[in-house]
């Protein structure tokens, strides 16, 4: 931890009470002037303090932006998010992580942006990524596994985000196959898993996560109002994006390690428990035409098994379903 992160840690742990300059200077082994400098550094990052002579400093508010120091403090990971680049604006965090990956960056590195000007969704769609209200994040993964297992990582990412959203905000989020997160039937998160492949071998994956956190309904363009929603719209609560980002990365690392240790079975069970698609009538749209039936579960590769009214079972590897 840097000195200003340590200082923040102390002031956050004081839960709104004053901490004297002397105590800070002793705990951090820095001079009183240095304390003042670090307080000002945190002010530049958007933190607000009350400073009273003989009482010390008290944290009033944290920045509304996703902040690096707060993220590091809230992380419980050893690798995921420990290297995190937070940008004001970028074309797409997917491209930024791709560049890092090509330069040899290690697994778990993350790029976050307050805004994406060219956010990308599945099937070449655009992903609406306005500033200050969402989590637009890409994570570098370097799994040593056969290429055919990469769809499992898509499902794992969906489970991680869903668990983090439910635990952190209380929202009743569920997963629509393969990896859209819905609240009350509307989409509040999308996941885009992209893989770099050479000679049929997986080089690395980039897990792109887009969460509509603090949007108001009026923030959406007309074509999205009936299908999209945000955590704030559904819960009525403003969500701390830094803490939710950390919660997602904490879940991601935990599940990723579990997956590497025990395989996909345990992830599949978690996915099925959170799924809003299983045991439901679904319509699968894919290039071969539409299939209607009941979604009955996942096969060992992560594909969705759909049972038609004739009893015939179809395995759906990719595509989209409507409920
Ligand atoms: C979908 O179509 O549902 C997937 C949307 C994925 C959006 C995220 S936001 C962060 C990352 N950067 C992008 O350009 N896309 C992903």
TrEMBL record:
Keywords, in A-Z order: ATP-binding, Biotin, DNA-binding, Ligase, Nucleotide-binding, Repressor, Transcription, Transcription regulation
Residues in BPL/LPL catalytic domain copies: 69-260
Cited CDD domains: BPL
List of residues binding biotin: 116, 120-122, 187
Catalytic function, reaction form: biotin + L-lysyl-[protein] + ATP = N(6)-biotinyl-L-lysyl-[protein] + AMP + diphosphate + H(+)
InterPro entries documented for this protein: aa-tRNA-synth_II/BPL/LPL, Bifunct_BirA, Biotin_CoA_COase_ligase, BPL_C, BPL_LPL_catalytic, HTH_11, Transcriptional_repressor_C, WH-like_DNA-bd_sf
Gene Ontology molecular function: any one: biotin--[biotin carboxyl-carrier protein] ligase activity
Listed EC numbers: 6.3.4.15
Residue ranges: DNA binding: 21-40
DNA-binding as UniProt keyword: yes
The protein's role, per its UniProt record: Acts both as a biotin--[acetyl-CoA-carboxylase] ligase and a repressor.
Family from the record: Belongs to the biotin--protein ligase family.
Protein's name in the database: Bifunctional ligase/repressor BirA
Biological classification of the source: Bacteria, Bacillati, Bacillota, Bacilli, Bacillales
């Amino acid at each position: 931890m840097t000195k200003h992160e340590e200082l923040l840690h102390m002031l956050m742990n004081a839960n709104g009470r004053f901490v004297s300059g002397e105590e800070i200077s002793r705990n951090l082994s820095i001079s009183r002037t240095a304390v003042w400098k670090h307080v000002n550094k945190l002010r530049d990052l958007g933190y607000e303090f009350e400073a009273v002579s003989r009482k010390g400093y008290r944290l009033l508010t944290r920045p509304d932006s996703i902040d690096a120091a707060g993220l590091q403090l809230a992380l419980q990971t050893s690798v995921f998010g420990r290297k995190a680049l937070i940008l004001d604006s970028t074309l797409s965090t997917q491209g930024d992580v791709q560049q890092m990956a090509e330069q040899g960056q290690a697994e778990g590195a993350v790029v976050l942006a307050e805004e994406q000007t060219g956010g990308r969704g599945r099937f070449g769609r655009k992903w609406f990524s306005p500033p200050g209200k969402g989590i637009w994040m890409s994570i570098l993964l370097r799994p040593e596994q056969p290429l055919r297992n990469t769809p499992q990582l898509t499902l794992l990412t969906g489970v991680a985000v869903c668990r983090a959203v439910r635990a952190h905000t209380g929202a009743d989020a569920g997963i629509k196959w393969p990896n859209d997160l819905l609240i009350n039937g509307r989409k509040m998160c999308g996941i885009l898993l992209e893989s770099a492949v050479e000679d049929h071998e997986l080089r690395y994956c980039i897990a792109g996560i887009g969460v509509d956190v603090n949007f108001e309904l009026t923030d959406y363009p007309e074509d999205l109002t009936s299908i999209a929603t945000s955590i704030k719209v559904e819960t009525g609560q403003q969500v701390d994006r830094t803490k939710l980002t950390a919660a997602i990365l904490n879940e991601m690392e935990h599940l990723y390690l579990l997956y590497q240790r025990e395989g996909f079975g345990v992830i599949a069970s978690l996915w099925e428990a959170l799924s809003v698609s299983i045991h439901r009538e679904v319509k699968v749209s894919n290039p071969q035409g539409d299939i209607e039936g009941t979604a009955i579960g996942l096969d060992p590769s992560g594909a969705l098994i759909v049972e038609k009214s004739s009893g015939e079972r179809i395995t759906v590897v990719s595509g989209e379903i409507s409920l």
